[in-house]
Design brief:
Layout (H helix, E strand, L loop, with lengths): L1 H31 L5 E9 L9 E8 L7 E7 L3 E7 L2 E7 L5 E3 L3 E4 L14 E8 L6 E6 L1 E2 L2 E11 L5 E12 L1 E3 L10 E6 L2 E3 L2 E8 L9 E8 L5 E6 L18 E12 L6 E12 L19 E4 L1
Parallel strand pairs: 1-9, 11-19
Antiparallel strand pairs: 1-4, 2-3, 2-5, 5-8, 6-7, 7-13, 8-10, 11-16, 12-14, 12-17, 15-16, 17-18, 18-21, 19-20
Length: about 325
């Protein structure tokens, strides 16, 4: 008798599992053929307190699901709102605009190269990337947060020994600069790199140069090659490894205080009494931002780099 009850119980369980299985299959089939509803979707740019870097943006919207075939591109004024009727689904949205010396392939920004083989300087620009759901039977508002894609690097040399008039010219290049940047705001590993030219100008005892970058490349050194031309004697060329000082360069945000990254060094000039000739040396490289600098052009001593490597040619 116990055996009969056990068999009946087992049979009932199997029957229940079959019914549940049929119900589950039917639900999945119904769900896959269920009608999707559209919803009004308002799309605008959020400049997060920044000034707009362009009068108009390119907006690309594509569905993330294989059954959503939408892939559209349109122009939107930087302060306007576009309203679209989108199916309830998830979408990938990119916003960007043209910038000098920069091309965009849909995922990466690329710097152009000049006739001298050096990377050209980009103009300041912003972009946004987001993956967002559109919910049915309600108004959806998609605010695209625009983030800066470039940062200014400024090098300053303060002559603390000798006379700045001893210098008649400066030639400088920096290696290890990122030639491309992801629209998500990162510098891809193993990405293309290049060199830039830094054009120094003189103001009193200070020699300075600024150059806007997509970022600093990872995995390669950033070396500053500097040639000083003097009023007498031969030019002097030195190469400085700035990699340890630029490790935080790529960490910038929408705050205007982080737009400029500064490196300040003390330049000492020595004029030989015994023979014609001038030499110079740079010490105490100091990284910081524009807001870190005090009235003398130096950052807080706590931020000074402990070490710097000098390679002499």
């Amino acid at each position: 008798m116990i055996y009969n009850y056990a068999m009946k119980y087992l049979y009932s369980c199997l029957l229940l599992l079959m019914v549940l299985g049929l119900c589950s299959c039917e639900r999945k089939e119904l769900f896959s053929h269920e009608e999707l509803y559209t919803a009004p979707t308002h799309i605008s740019a959020d400049w997060q307190g920044q000034s707009a870097t362009a009068s108009a943006l390119q907006i690309r919207i594509s569905g993330t699901h294989q059954d959503i075939h939408l892939d559209t591109l349109f122009t939107l004024e930087s302060d306007a709102t576009a309203t679209l009727a989108l199916l309830e689904a998830e979408y990938h949205i990119i916003a960007w605009h043209d910038a000098a010396n920069v091309s965009f392939n849909g995922s990466l920004f690329h710097l152009s190269i000049g006739e001298d083989g050096l990377l050209r300087e980009p103009s300041h620009f912003c972009a946004a990337e987001s993956t967002v759901p559109v919910n049915p039977e309600q108004e959806n508002r998609l605010s695209l947060k625009m983030y800066p894609q470039t940062r200014m690097l400024k090098l300053s040399l303060n002559v603390d020994k000798g006379s700045p008039e001893l210098i008649t010219g400066i030639e400088a290049t920096l290696s290890g600069v990122a030639a491309e940047r992801s629209v998500s705001g990162t510098t891809p590993r193993n990405s293309t790199t290049g060199n830039i030219r830094l054009n120094f100008t003189q103001d009193g005892n200070t020699l300075s140069a600024g150059h806007r970058l997509l970022g600093i490349a990872s995995g390669v050194p950033q070396e500053l090659t500097l040639t000083l031309h003097y009023s007498e004697g031969e030019p002097q060329t030195e190469t400085y490894n700035l990699s340890p000082l630029l490790t935080t360069f790529n960490r910038f945000d929408v705050s205007g205080s982080t737009d400029m990254f500064t490196l300040t060094g003390k330049l000492s000039l020595y004029q030989s009494v015994e023979e014609a000739g001038i030499s110079g040396s740079i010490e105490d490289w100091t990284p910081g931002t524009e807001t870190d600098m005090d009235a003398n052009g130096y950052a807080d001593d706590a931020d000074k780099a402990d070490e710097h490597e000098l390679i002499t040619h």
